C-alpha cells in the first residue's frame, strides 16, 4: 500500500501560534483515521511566516527562492492539504492569500483540502464559507464538508448540549478529510500535462 502524504499550511504569525496548533490537531486526527485503515502516512507542515520575505520578493522579481519553490511543490504534490489561517479584517490573512496566489490554478485539482481558521471571537466564523471555500473552489480543490473555526474561547471548551466542542469538530473534520484522501484515485502524470514551474509562475503574472 502506498504512503499518503498530508501537508498542512499554517499562516500563523506568532510562536507559539493557535493557528499552528489547530493545524497540528487536524493533522493528528486525519493521521489517526488513516492509521485505523492501515495506511502509511507522511506529514509535513509549511509555516508561511518563515517564507514571508520570499513570498514578497517573488511578487517583485517574478522568481521564487529555492525554499519557496520547495514549499509550493510540497503543497501541490500532497495527497491532501490542510490550510489554516488567522482571521484578519474578517478574511484570511494577506500572507495566506499571497502564498496561494503563487499556486497554479490547476495544481490542486481534485486534491482533498480541509480548511480551518482561528480568531479572537466566534463572530468571524463565516470566514470559512465566504472567503476560504471560494478560494479553493477557484483552485479546483475538493474541500471537505466540515471546516473548523477556533475562537479564543474554544480552546479547552468541551461544548454544551447544543454545540459540539472544538475537539469533536476537529475529529469530525479530520475523519472526513482522511476518508477523502484515502478514496482519491491514484492519477498517473502524463508528460504532456506537466507544466514547468517557471512557466506556471509566468502565467500567473498579470502585470
Name the shape in a single word: globular
Overall residue-averaged pLDDT value = 88
| Class based on secondary structure composition and strand pairing | alpha/beta
Residue runs with pLDDT of under 50 for 5 or more positions: 189-195
* Percent strand: 15-25%
Number of strands: 7
What oligomeric state is this?
single chain
How many helix segments? 7
> Main beta sheet: strand number and arrangement?
7 strands, mixed
Q: Give the distance, in angstroms, between the N- and C-terminal Cα atoms.
A: 46 Å
Radius of gyration in whole Å, from Cα? 17 Å
Helix content: 40-55%
SSE sequence, one letter per element = EHEHHEEHEHEEHH
Annotation keywords:
single chain; 207 residues; alpha/beta; seven-stranded mixed beta sheet
Report on this structure.
The protein is built from seven helices and seven strands. With 207 residues, the protein is an alpha/beta fold. Strands 1, 2, 3, 4, 5, 6 and 7 form a seven-stranded mixed β-sheet that branches. The longest helix is centred in the N-terminal third of the chain and has 19 residues.
In short:
The protein has 207 residues and is α/β, with parallel strands linked by helices.
Amino acid at each position: 500500500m502506498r504512503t499518503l502524504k498530508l501537508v498542512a499550511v499554517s499562516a500563523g504569525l506568532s510562536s507559539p501560534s493557535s493557528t499552528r496548533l489547530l493545524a497540528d490537531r487536524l493533522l493528528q486526527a486525519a493521521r489517526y483515521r488513516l492509521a485505523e485503515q492501515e495506511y502509511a502516512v507522511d506529514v509535513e507542515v509549511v509555516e508561511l511566516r518563515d517564507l514571508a520575505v520570499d513570498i514578497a520578493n517573488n511578487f517583485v522579481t517574478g522568481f521564487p527562492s529555492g525554499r519557496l519553490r520547495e514549499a509550493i511543490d510540497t503543497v501541490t504534490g500532497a495527497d491532501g492539504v490542510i490550510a489554516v489561517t488567522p482571521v484578519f479584517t474578517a478574511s484570511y490573512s494577506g500572507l495566506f492569500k499571497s502564498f496561494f496566489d503563487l499556486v497554479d490554478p490547476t495544481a490542486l485539482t481534485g486534491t482533498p483540502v480541509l480548511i480551518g481558521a482561528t480568531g479572537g471571537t466566534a463572530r468571524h466564523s463565516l470566514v470559512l464559507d465566504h472567503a476560504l471555500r471560494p478560494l479553493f473552489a477557484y483552485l479546483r480543490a475538493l474541500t471537505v464538508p466540515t471546516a473548523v473555526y477556533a475562537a479564543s474561547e474554544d480552546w479547552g471548551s468541551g461544548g454544551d448540549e447544543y454545540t459540539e466542542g472544538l475537539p469533536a469538530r476537529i475529529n469530525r473534520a479530520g475523519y472526513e478529510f482522511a476518508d477523502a484522501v484515502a478514496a482519491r484515485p491514484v492519477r498517473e502524470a502524463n508528460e504532456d500535462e506537466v507544466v514547468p514551474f517557471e512557466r506556471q509562475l509566468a502565467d500567473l503574472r498579470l502585470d
